[in-house]
Amino acid sequence: MTDVAIGAQPRRPQLRIACEECRRKRIKCDRGTPQCTSCATSGKTCIVRDDCPRRGPKKGYLKTLQNKIEDLQARLNEQQEASATETRTCSPSQEEVNSDNDNGSSMDNNEIQSTATPITLGDIQLWTQPLEVPFPMMQPGPWDCIENPFPSSDFPVLDHTQEPAPFAVGVGLDITPMMHNDLDQLYFDRAYMFAPILQAHRYRSWSKQPNKSKQQTCLQYAMWTLAASLSSQFQVAVRQLYSEARQLLHIIESEEPCHQVSIEQAQAWLLLAIYELTCEDYHRWMMSAGTAFRLIQMMRLYELDIHQSLYTTQAQEQYSAQLSPSGQIQDDWIDVETKRRTFWLAYTIDRFTSMVDGLHMFFNDRMIRTLLPAPEANFASGRPKEMSFLTDMVRDADIERLDEDLSSFTETVIVAHICGRVLEHKQRPLARTRDNNVEFCRRHRCINALLAQRVAMLRMHASVEHLDPVLTFTALAAHISVLMLYDFIESKPLGTKAQATQLTKALHAEYQQQALDAVADIPPLVFALDQHFQTHPLTPILLLLGARFSQSHPELNDVSNKLMPCIITRLQASVNLNRLSQSFLQLIGPQTDIYGAFT
Has domain 15-52 been given CATH number 3.40.50.970? Predict the structure, then answer.
């Protein structure tokens, strides 16, 4: 009796089957009755099936299917051998008859059709040529915890003599040649205006090549992710493209040595960061943006033209002669200009996003030795043009001289630089000595003069009705910076002594009217945003700062009553297009419902 008890294994109790809701969420079910803990917490109906269908094919089905495939493959080989034998033993009379055909072909039409048609088994087509796979299978990455993850897939080699085969992306999504063209066009139509870091002709020269690098493939998926997020027909594919792009980037970072960093890799992280900022999680964006900024720093894109900053006047003239349209370094100029634009895009993102929480900025203005972006026409055509450095452009700007050659992107860079100086001015600790107070006032007036100068130059470009979306965003950023300067004076007195108090009041009176003018100019700019089909993805940041200013200055009630409703209306209109708008509406607070009732 003891031996039987020792040898027998205790029978495990029959457990209740997991409920349908837990199976759908792929979480562990505690099998509680009448409801499990997960369903009781979420308020879902707990449904449990008495029996579950077995997974996978029936027993012996795979073996039967394999035998059929082998049989069909053998029959196909026999048919091909017989056809080749008949061709070699063709009589001269038959050759003459075939040569007299109207089409001039040496084979019978029926024979051509029979060899070109694949053998089918049900709905499965069997081709004799297997696909070649240049990329390895995707391995699970640290982002598998993202909601709705999709497994990775192979990348087939494309044949230039035929229509390009579709890219296989995840489960249930194939990038056909038409979708490939649509996603490319979507990027250059809707995303290029605020992320002009790729030349269209240079990109299209390698976008459909079968032997492009992994870095180029990552950049392509990142472009498609951002483009799909800005469209309605590709919303279903956004998450799959996003997951695929991040897994590819993870594979590159795990395989390549740390010192081998490509510009495509940095651009891919930068575009994914923009997508995450507007469509995903804010903290995830900070991690991706930090990765992009570090890659740009490792490539030293902030000092691409350090050699030119040390040139004499004669050397600069020689360099300009080399950059003529007939020069020999035109292709190299496009590559360098692409790197410049990648750096300046990261620079603008760093400046504008740091304004939300007053975070310290990543890039230091004192270390930048990279020329400003060239005009769009030069970049698109590949015609080199010598540009100025940012510090020289800001210092030598003249209101009377209209900068017609500056692109909207360059104007955004200049205003982002001034916004960064405003933020740095606020972050400096205030000293209580008279000399430091004088230095503070001098620095404050200098930044304010730069802002007033840039606002005047933006007004000279065009009227509000004809501003493009990027210039509208840039003008709005300049006005918001004026409000930040005024708010800083009011919230940070220069001391407790009578002289310091008097100095604070003098600055307050000096800039109060300027702030009132800026508040009055902001509603037309916000209204202009509604007239554009496209908007800059960082626009909600400026709207949040304007709403904060309106809330913190009750003495400007008459003016703020016009500012706050238009900001709330604009944020509510873009909730479905930009997740930042939804988050910022919650930060603004209960006034959202109050002003929303009047719209």
Answer: no
